[in-house]
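Please review this one.

:::
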Amino acid sequence: MARILVVEDDEWYRALMVEMLRQDGHEAVEAGDGVQALAYLKSNPMDLMIIDMLMPNKDGVDTIMELQQLGMAIPIVAISGGRRAVSAEFNLESARLLGVRAGLVKPFSRADLRGALAEVME
């Protein structure tokens, strides 16, 4: 199975995703924002990253751009939520423009998460 870094500022949501991934046999680790994610990735190679697009300190767009500048190619699933679906879709479109192949609007189901993982791990 895959080594997956879950980057999400909402502690409850992050823990839920990590638990689902572990139940599916993946090795899942977590970071609360892009700053923590980048620090972790510099010394710990991962197979895939799930990243929230809106976070304090360093959001998803800035994190993805910095990964690209560092030459760190990692498949990414972008996630976004909020009160307005339009905002979430805008955030996911921003991720797609940066080369992210899969995105999910929160809340999403376990099946949706599995589908997005399969899409980027092809």
